[in-house]
Amino acid sequence: MSAGEPGTGVRARPRLTVVSGPSGVGKSTVVAELRRMDPTVFFSVSMTTRNQRPGEIDGAHYHFVDRARFDELAGRGEFLEWAEYAGNCYGTPRQPVLDALASGKPAILEIELQGARQVRVAMPEAQLVMLVPPSWETLVGRLTGRGTEDPEVVRHRLAVAEKELDAQGEFDALVVNTDVKQAAAELLTLMTGTAVRKPWSSS
After folding, report:
1. In terms of residue numbers, what domain contains 117?
2. 127 sits in which H/E element
3. Which of 25, 32, 74, 177 would give a disulfide with 183, using CB separation of 3.0 to 4.6 Å?
């Protein structure tokens, strides 16, 4: 067995792990707990053209730029992925991720399904993990239990969530968010444990 194969106990070469999942599944909470467990993990901060909200810190919550700057970077291929939502652009800067991996740090990125698919193309060696609820009923409860959103908005989110969950087969691993600490620990193991080859891998 070579280094990094299952059963050797050797830490795998650092790579990017992409965490995705439907709205309401708890992605941000689980990733925040993972970062608390292991502060050495590099967390990729997205860039956006939307306005900075009260309490947000530039460079911590997002990198805030204007549309001209965003378009310039996108045109130069400096995003691993990017998309436009509700008139605002969001993207993942490529170089900070590459720099973190080169320095030996595992990196994590929390994005939606569309972005995860783009990362799969841009960086095929990235590990895609879908965070899923314990049950569909649990997710419905989380989305409707907020009680602060228009029913039509909730119905739309549930429809989108159903489509996102149907894409589970595109991901390398699933983590069920029954308990935040447990889910974060499982995700951390996937990020820093020994490499697990897919059955169809030829390498």
Report:
1. 16-192
2. strand 127-132
3. 177
Residue 9 domain-assigned? no
- Map residue 176 onto helix, strand or coil: strand
Domain-located, residue 100: yes
Which residues have C-beta within 8 Å of that of residue 98, sequence separation ≥ 6? none
In-domain check, residue 197: no
Residue 137 has pLDDT above 90, yes or no: yes
The residue-averaged pLDDT of 30-41 equals 96
**Binding-site residues for ATP:** 21-28
User: Which residues are known binding-site members?
Assistant: 21-28
Specify if 1 maps to a domain: no
Angle between helices 27-37 and 180-192 in degrees, nearest 10 = 60
Q: If you write DSSP's letter for every residue of 30-96 in order, what string do you get? A: HHHHHHHH-TTSEEPPPEE-SPPPTT--BTTTBEE--HHHHHHHHHTT-EEEEEEETTEEEEEEHHH
- For the chain, the domain total comes to 1
Q: What confidence category does residue 33 fall into, taking pLDDT thresholds of 50, 70 and 90?
A: very high
